[in-house]
Amino acid sequence: MRISNEITERIKQAADIVEVVGDFVSLKKRGSNYTACCPFHNEKSPSFNVNPVRQIYKCFGCGAAGDSIKFVMDIEGISYGEALRHLAQKYNIEVEEEQQTPEEVLRQNERDSLYIVLNFAQKYYQNLLMEHEEGQSIGLSYFRNRGFNDPTIKSFGLGYSLTDWDGLTKEAAKKGYNPELLEKAGLALHKEGDPQANRATRYYDRFRGRVIFPIHNVSGKVIAFGARILSADKSQPKYINSPETDVYHKSKILYGIYQAKNAIRLEDVCYLVEGYTDVISLHQAGIQNVAASSGTSLTEEQIKLIARFTNNITILYDGDAAGIKAALRGLDMVLEEGLNVSLVTLPDGEDPDSYVYKVGAEGFKKHVQQATKDFITFKTEMLLKDAGDNPFKRAEAINEIVTSITKISDPIKRQIFFKRTADLMKMDEQTLISEGNKHLRRREDKAAEKPLQSKPKDRFRERPQEPADIHFSDNFIEEEFGILVEDSVPNAVPDVASRHEPPTDLFKQRLYFQEQAFVKLLILHGQTELETGISLCRYLLHEIGEISFENQLFDLVLNIFRQRFGLGEIPSTDYFLSHIDPDIQRFSIDLCTSKHHLSENWEKHDIVVPTDEELLHEIAFKKILRLKMAYSATKMKDLLNQMGKITGNSDEEFAQIMEVQRQYKFYKNINDLAAKELGTVVPGY
Length: 685
Fold this sequence. Notes:
The chain contains 28 helices and 20 strands. The chain is of the alpha+beta class. The strands form six sheets. The protein has a five-stranded antiparallel sheet. A five-stranded mixed sheet has the order 15-14-16-17-18. It has a four-stranded antiparallel sheet with strand order 8-11-12-13, with helices on both faces. Strand 2 and strand 3 (33-36) form a beta hairpin. The chain starts with a strand and ends in a 7-residue tail after the last helix.
């Protein structure tokens, strides 16, 4: 059922951020805040900051940020509702949940029932492994030969299924579980009955005569099983797995992620392998930041699951060259998600399971350290080796590698990989960059052809970097718009939302920072009254009229203020600090946190530093003027570019030139007036 809004607010009020975080890390008081080494990434010097006044946390190392609920979600890897229930239990708050529709109740009850019966099956299989004669002689012997000890068997919930046709089905019936539920959970199959022969439908176990590998979701619930046959029966597949169910979607889960998530956070890398036993053997050897795709190609959902705990993936391959080459094609999506991916090949004939058994944990770690190569370098070397001296194959290899590099959203990383690839291929770096720009243009043109999507999350995805067709010199910029290039970007700006970065174009970048400064004033001081009856929010919204912001995140925040102000209210800072949209929440937290704080000695020596609140009227006035200058400068640049593409050979095009000139003068006038107020010298004509 759904937790009511009233109870949700009670939980938020009760959940003290210092107490909640203190359950997981050791906090030390520093000034008015608390610090610790971040639990989400490995670090030696503490960069994790907890603000008890704002009830938020922020890591200046990895960027993790949020409130108490977000912290529990991330540290435990659970959903929003589960985090609320966790905190309710901690603070002894009785959870009264709102009544759902009959359809919602039925669906929730079915899901709960599936979890219950799957948990029953796991315990049943493990009991057979440890207690039953057949389980001990066949299943337990197999695991012992693999080198698995009892703590490992218990940690992963390993088990054994008897060769009987309906052992689990009968035991489940004794406990009151109906066979239809077993079928929905993927534990049983059925054979239709024959009414004429007076035979009822018969249910029988899906897994028979196999060792069992339970599959857990991130919060540790059993959601499915993998099963390996141990006999030499060639008519049976070596492995069978649970089918897709309401609680199990193979493309969205990784085997071992529950056991590995904390180690992945600490090590800041996820080792990705292929099989169940690879995961278990490495885990037992002390290499616990490992999960498996269970023989399937890596999916976008699995990549996003890893990204919850680290931005780094190292894939351990034991396949042949052809298998690796085929797998490489699917790894571009890792780059698209903004993760760093590396690869390691093991010696011939070895897999992670056998190799760690052979060389031990230290030997395995040493090999990984020496053999790790980033994805682009690995792919370049492999494709060049395959191409040899064939010019056509080399051209195909270059095109494929350039395509992969352009999947990387970070322009600095792209530049590094273009240079490294050029060195490996012994060719001109600029040629690769030019080819990459073509790919980016085509991709952006293709994206522009698609209808606009209304999904909120899609609005903040970083767009491919647009290659610049027209370049302006620094002198032209300073003379035409009065912009000092070295002063166009503030010295210190807060981090922005995780799926957005400032543009590289100078004019758009300047506008970006002015828009950012504007919404910062709204979020932090929107409710403050400049004079009786005149709030800062009212003043700012009145001054900018109906313009829209270029940056979609900032425009969303601006529209929230417009809508709420139209209803007679002004959203507070706390409203944004606990906002349901993670990008808005993180951006707001970035605005409210700082790596530095004023020394207490300043007050002792009567050194007074004016606060933003004391200078708010002056700050707001200047922010509006700077925003207008940046906005008009961007428009003027766009109009100049537009004019350069009009030849003026026809009456229609001549009319277009006149209209562009009219608009240019309009924005030039705004720019000049704002510059005059600020005391900025803008050259005349």
